[in-house]
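The protein record reproduced below.
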Amino acid sequence: MTAVVPVSPDRAEPAAAAVPRRAAGDERGRAARQPSLGLHGLGFVIPIAVLLSLGAGSLESSVVVLAPLVTFALPVVAMVAFWWEDWPGTRLRASWSGWADTVLVVVAAIVLTGVGQAIAGHLDLRGIFDPTPGPGHVPTFPDTLALAGAAFVAMLEVTLVSEGWPLRRIPRRAAGVAALALSWAIALLVYFTLVGVHPPAGSGLVERTGPVTGEDLGAVLVAIGAWQVWLFVAWRGWPLSEVDRRWLRLPAANALVIGGGVLTYVVAHGIGGVRPARLSAVACAVVAAGLVLGMLLDGWLRTRLSPARERLVTLAGIVLLAAALAVLLTAYADGRHFSRAAPDEWVAHVGLNAIGVSVILHVAVGQRWPIAMGGKP
């Protein structure tokens, strides 16, 4: 995710290059070590992904408890990785840096999930950690996910699509906090304006009137997320990176990504009849595939193919890997018992939260620890 296009006087550093700047000079060395570097990284990514997929004891318990926690953590992960450049972990020695940042992310996940729960109803710790909290307790799944997903998509929109402008003009730590606050402000506006909630009696959730359900909004959001990862991670901002003028590039980039996500939902659901949960599952598989190929295996094809061919091969790889993930995970989930959740919701959790977070933690937060501990390439 490092920049590969020239920067004109009118443009900020592309936010698709948001992996900490200290690693930018190692891009060529990392590319030379691929695909070995990325494949070895799977030894870290896969166990963490499995833990997040199954760590609450069953598929359903994991999605009910861990999906809200991890989704609320995603904007903080982006802030630490792409704005703070892994601070505060950088204050420690390299072997402890990623773990310190991970502890910060875990604490933030619990706090922000509690905030989201309070917005949806009221704060209730049992509702956060118990997959079957019972009457009178406020569950976080699925009614807080639209808010959490909106905050993450807004964070990527600010960080990647909008290149962090104009926040990157201020010190990076203050800029990261400002980006997180702005993302939450956007998410709250979307949530209170659009989402309708009609909870069962005794759930503790607040009824809200809105034109769309949380499930429909969630499908649109993950479709936008798939476009963000495809264009601004896997393709490193192309074709928008060819536009020199920021005043034209940034509006066009936002319109393309948001419009592409909405159009995907309209075509798939409105015309094709694909259920929102199924669309979310497939879109999350695309996000996972895009992060694996665009971050974990970053640079593998860059020195071997022309830019145009690299983009085509990368896109084909994303489609094939996403299809394989969606099919295999769905086949596995279909044979398990679900009552509160559904197999598609677990598949979406694995793609976005389990695999996606594991890749970002390994590459952008942990700086590929422990694989890259032997020194710079």
Remarks:
- Residues 73 and 187 are 14 Å apart (CA to CA).
- Residues 15-371 form one domain.
